[in-house]
Amino acid sequence: MRNVSYITTPIFYPNAKPHLGHAYTATLADIFARHRRLSGDEVYLLTGVDENTEKVVRAAIAVGQDTKSYLDGVVSAFTDLFSAQKLNISYDQFIRTSNEKVHWPGAQAMWQKLVDAGDIYPASYDGFYCVGHEAFVTEKDLIDGKCPDHNEAPEHLKETNYFFRLSKYTDEIKKRIESNELEIIPAARKNEILALLEQGLQDVSFSRPTGKVSVGIPVPGDSTQKMYVWCDALTNYISALGYGRDDWLFRKFWYDGADTLHIIGKDILRFHAGIWPGMLLSAGLPLPKKILVHGFITSGGKKMSKTLGNVIDPDVLIAEYGGEAVRYFLARHISPFEDGDITLEMFKNAYNADLANGLGNLVSRIMKMAEEHHHPASPIRHPTERLFSRAGPSSTEEGILESYNIQAYAEYISQEIARLDRRIQETEPFKLVKKDKTAAQKIIAELVNKLSHIASLLQPILPTTAVKIHDAITQNRMPEKPLFPRK
Ligand code: MSP
After folding, report:
1. pTM score, two decimals?
2. What CATH number is given to the structural domain containing 73?
3. Which of 26, 34, 144, 474 lies most in the core, judged by the most C-beta atoms within 10 Å?
């Protein structure tokens, strides 16, 4: 039977157009999804946007638009960035949490389950709320009375909310994480969350008074309250599969033992490894199997920010270098487990070294020799379908990918590229052909074969380039244009 995999990105806040951090999460998720599909798994990849937030309302007001048209605009910026012409994110669904038909029934069904379990209770809240974080903050989170991340004083709130009895689930969540039933990758993040669980989880506010928020899903049975952020947002992972409505996808990709993988950034770990498992336990639903937690992308060693002027727009990189080059950089030069840095200069250097002089040049050299001197007896089969099980990776290569270290995998491929370059230098088949044609042809055949293997390995990272290389090999011709022109 085929393995079934469910992979998700977080739902992005659509209060501004996507930045490189969003591109990173989505690209990582796509690389794993493609890898698993190539290994023969049945995969469902989910991405989307987290729309029911005050951040969006404020952003729309700031530019004089109504919330809906503002959202539609930002959503098209996301889907455009993820399209085949750009980052090529092979998602099966792009969920919008403002969609009352797709998402709301699931969020409300989840709420009802929590109520049925006796885990929702009203209480008054008196404290601070940061709209930037969409979270309740305490005085110790503030510097000079302001949220240091958003440079803004939080709102003081005194109101009645429904709370979720998260504290009740601390021990069970801890047990599941310790035993790796819910595996947190990498281990450092697992330890971080275990340390937090050691202190005990606190109950969390799950609703806000209807009059105080402009958007949000109504709380079932109480029109005076709307759901607040996390119950709504986290439930997207199952509402997208039809939880609360027509739920065959939900059975298949969540309930019946599918390999479920959430990919998130480090800032939202506590929500995904605390609140989310707590909600699922309360609702009597299976927990996800794995959460992969990546770091932050910085620029010039600093957090990207408009004020510092160091924000890198993925569209600018794509316009200059193409979507595949951006995918390659993110895979090869950013660690999936720690913070990683990027500047425009680093990107250009890496592009020229790895892609123009490295891979692109290698393909041209080998295919030029092949076109002139190699005459394959039978046409080489185009090996893109189910590659990993045929000409696919060895156990070492597969092993690296299975440990989620996409950077190590990309590094391994670049070593293979360098090895093949050296092999050409050492054997010089273009010279040898004049003295011993048969020997030279044998070497060229070997080079083509190895190049085909490299293209196979590259598929999850560079899907379009991999097909171009395989096409060149099948047609025994040099690509018409260089794959990666030098910049
Ligand atoms: N809407 C919430 C997630 C809800 S999931 C049920 C959210 N949205 S976000 O737009 O702020 O962030 C989305 C993802 O992008 C998160 O995984 C976050 O870690 C990631 N990134 C945001 N900035 C980033 C960088 N500079 N670098 C890498 N990823 C970062 O949180």
Report:
1. 0.93
2. 3.40.50.620
3. 26
